[in-house]
Design brief:
globular; repeat; Dihydrofolate Reductase, subunit A; 467 residues; alpha+beta; one-carbon metabolism; 4-stranded antiparallel sheet; 18% helix; 37% strand; NADP; WD repeat; Quinoprotein_ADH-like_sf; 32 strands
């Protein structure tokens, strides 16, 4: 037996991570990270101003599951079981090719903090918005989202990567004690002092089911791995099992992924480059590109980005493939491309692929409604114009950042895109605002009047005109 001492008040939560580290939260306002081999404290995290009530790891679900999943299929050997468990763990825990367990902590100080304890004892961000103590936090099974339950009667949804607020679920009329995720990340169940459990659709942010039955406060809830049952326990001394049958009309039905072009161009001629280089470097525009192409409404899905070889090569090596997205490189010489990017393809299997056919990538990706939410074409000019001029039927919309100069200075351009004004029309700001809001980005960007250096730029959305 080993004793790990250091906390000066009650320990409220203990988690054993996948990197052989133990995480403990305490009423002494700190979180400690311990080496499970020798019990040594290797990190003390101090940021909360009151008790730490709960903590959660981005790998909680995959550590619970190991080599198994909702199908119940058992590995055929201990070796296969170990290999599959490791693969599942690395899929969630790997960030930039390295194992990084993120942690979120909840406190009586009404706040949460997002951490990467293996990298720093400083938090990634402080998460504020709850009006009373935060009792419970949980990562979605894929680690991309965080749910928080508070005594202010609400549940809040946050981005699990950067801690940014996304949405609030309201419906409970008393403090919310806990939440639990379905294995596919589509649904969230919460339990409350108001004697009820509520099931929420994460994509639409709407209540899809009320689960009554308890006669007093409901303290704990958990979701079965197969997604069909929920168990809860409460002050009434009862443990209840619910077989969930969500009415189809209440559930969001996966739609075919929309195909979009996203590009920044100098108006009015829509120039996008000179001698293979972009003539500007606009931080806000780059942040817009990253978040629009990365964020999804459905946390269980990812977006696809399709680009030519030259566009991929123009991305600094440390940033490629583009993180949080499925990357496709288009090339005329498949063998050469596979040879040149052999190491990157092996390291990023599943997130980086090579193809010779734009139509095949779009066609195959459009069929994968269970994993793919949107498809973005991100360059270069040849691919943009090939689609705009010859295959406009395959494009649903164009996200165009309209760039202009604030001075009389001229900018040379030798590469242009062609958006036919007879075919495409700019939508009103309301439609783009609604789109950004659905992804939790409405507050992140101002659509008009952005300025950096000698450039000003507006974010716009274009759709095909209806005759």
């Amino acid at each position: 037996m080993m004793t790990m001492s250091g906390h000066s008040s009650a320990v409220s939560c203990v988690k054993w991570g996948g990197s052989n580290l133990i995480y403990t939260g305490s009423h002494d306002k700190t979180i400690r990270v311990w080496d499970a081999k020798d019990g040594r404290c290797i990190q003390v995290l101090k940021s909360h101003a009151h008790w730490v009530n709960h903590l959660a790891l981005s790998t909680d679900h995959v550590l619970r599951m190991g080599a198994f999943d909702h199908t119940g299929t058992a590995p055929s050997s201990p070796e296969e079981e170990q290999a599959k468990a490791l693969k599942n763990y690395e899929k969630v825990a790997k960030i930039g090719g390295k194992i990084v367990e993120r942690m979120v902590t909840a406190s009586d100080d009404f706040t949460m903090f997002l951490w990467e304890p293996s990298r720093s004892n400083k938090p990634i961000c402080r998460m504020t918005g709850h009006q009373k103590l935060v009792n419970h936090v949980s990562f979605s099974p894929d680690g991309r989202y965080i749910a928080s339950a508070s005594f202010d009667n609400s549940i809040k949804l946050w981005d699990g990567r950067d801690g940014k607020f996304i949405a609030t679920f309201r419906g409970h009329v008393a403090p919310v004690y806990q939440t639990s995720w379905s294995s596919d990340c589509r649904l969230l169940v919460s339990c409350s002092k108001d004697t009820t459990l509520k099931v929420w659709d994460v994509r639409t942010r709407k209540l899809v089911n009320d689960l009554p039955g308890h006669s007093d406060e409901v303290y704990a809830v958990d979701w079965s791995v197969d997604g069909g049952r929920v168990a809860s326990g409460g002050k009434d001394k009862m443990v209840l099992f619910y077989h969930l049958r969500i009415p189809k009309e209440k559930m969001s039905i996966p739609s075919q992924p929309k195909v979009s072009l996203i590009v920044a161009a100098l108006i009015p001629k829509l120039g996008i480059g000179y001698k293979g280089q972009m003539p500007w470097s606009l931080k806000k525009e780059m942040a817009y590109f990253r978040k629009v192409t990365t964020n999804t409404v459905d946390p269980s899905k990812k977006n696809i980005v399709i680009m030519g070889r030259k566009t991929y090569e123009s991305i600094p090596t440390k940033f490629r493939p583009l993180k949080g997205r499925i990357n496709y490189i288009l090339t005329r010489n498949l063998n050469k491309c596979q040879t040149d990017f052999k190491d990157e393809l092996l390291t990023n299997e599943g997130n980086l692929s090579v193809s010779t056919s734009l139509e095949d990538v779009i066609s195959n990706s459009s069929k994968d409604t269970s994993h793919v939410e949107e498809i973005f074409i991100i360059g270069g000019a040849e691919i943009y114009n090939q689609l705009l001029n010859n295959h406009s039927d395959k494009i649903d919309r164009v996200f165009l950042t309209e760039v202009s100069l604030t001075t009389d200075k001229d900018v040379e351009m030798d590469t242009f895109i062609n958006i036919d004004p007879n075919l495409w029309k700019k939508t009103g700001n309301g439609e783009l605002e609604s789109y950004l809001e659905s992804k939790g980005l409405k507050e992140d960007f101002t659509l008009k009047g952005n300025e950096e250096k000698e450039f000003k730029f507006d974010f716009t959305l274009w759709k095909k005109s209806v005759n």
